[in-house]
Amino acid sequence: MTTPIENLIRATLSDLAEEAPTVHDQLNRAERRARSRRRVTITMSAAGVLAAMLIATPLALAASGGGDAPPAAPASTPSGPPAAPAPAAVTEPPVDQGVRTGRGAPAPARTTIPASPASTAVPASPATSTPAPPAIPASPAPATTAVPATPVPASPAPRVAGPRTGPVTAPVPARSAPPVDRGPATGPVPAR
Amino acid sequence: MDEDDRARLAEFVAGRAPALMRVAYLLTGDRHAAEDLFQSALAKTIPRWRDLRHTDPEGYLRTVMYREQVSWWRRLRRYRETLLTGVDDRAGPDLFGGTDVRLAMRAALRALPAAQRTVVVLRYYEDLTETQVAAALGCSVGTVRSRTHRAVARLRQLLPDIELLEVRR
């Protein structure tokens, strides 16, 4: 059973249908649209796969690398021997010290060189990389003992006479000064 | 798609396009929107033409049109377009009895939401049963009934004096 409004709806729809436009060449446009639709689908699929790989690869690598033990934490008690003191590397010859004088650890070398060739063991310790030892030569007990050994006047003379290189020769006069100061201090001792 | 398939497709489109365009025009209420709807449905049918050519390509195409009309994405685009287009023509008073009623009904049909208008077209123009409409739209029969009821109620609301006019005729 139909109501009046349903009849009116049917009649109106029939009238509207008669006004429908007639278009041509629908197939070509539809084919173009289908091609673009397929292209977009393929592109978006590839982009989705790429994005999934970019996201999943780091996660997979992180998951597979979990079997290895993490780096060990430092033990609470020191397991190894205490750190060796700096003077461990003492094998450097004094000649190298002279070359290094420009760096800033020349003071011990200056005091020891005039002392005597016998005191080469003393300058060896300041030759280490740590500058701490220079404090020790500041009180040159061995130097004082070395000075009276003999060549107090002899050692400054060859130094002055042989200025081979600039940086090396410059300290030489400075070295000669301390022995002079010590001279009076030590001089009376041999004089007696 | 080989030449034989393409020839069959061209024949099908040339023979059934006017009827399908009428349905598309009723579904959309606009010439350009109807053309766009028909092309969209045809573009979705072409990739499956090889499987459909021996069955019922028109039924498939109609179903695609119906569902495309009520799809969510298309509704968004239609809403955007509706904001840009002008106001629909209003039916004014007419000396000829019935014409103003039909014009008013036409405007009221255009004012219906897409889902309700689709149900109205399928029920009252295509003369499909509720079950067939439900199968075509992919929804339940209850949904079809409720949409039909709401559509008719909305038309009565938009045309308050329609019963009076019908009686007078």
Automatic annotation (TrEMBL), chain A:
Comp. bias (Low complexity): 86-96, 105-130
Key words, A-Z: Membrane, Transmembrane, Transmembrane helix
Region of interest called Disordered, as start-end residue ranges on this chain: 64-192
Transmembrane domains' residue ranges: 40-61
Biased composition (Pro residues): 131-140
Name of the protein this chain belongs to: Uncharacterized protein
TrEMBL record, chain B:
Keyword terms, alphabetized: DNA-binding, Sigma factor, Transcription, Transcription regulation
All residue ranges annotated as the RNA polymerase sigma-70 region domain in the record: 17-78
UniProt domain RNA polymerase sigma factor 70 region 4 type: residue ranges: 103-155
BP terms from Gene Ontology: DNA-templated transcription initiation
SUPFAM superfamilies attached to this UniProt entry: Sigma2 domain of RNA polymerase sigma factors (SSF88946), Sigma3 and sigma4 domains of RNA polymerase sigma factors (SSF88659)
GO MF term set: DNA binding; sigma factor activity
Record bears the keyword Transcription: yes
One Pfam family in the UniProt entry: Sigma70_r4_2
Domain of life of the native organism: Bacteria
Family indicated by similarity: Belongs to the sigma-70 factor family. ECF subfamily.
Protein name: SigE family RNA polymerase sigma factor
Gene source species: Micromonospora wenchangensis
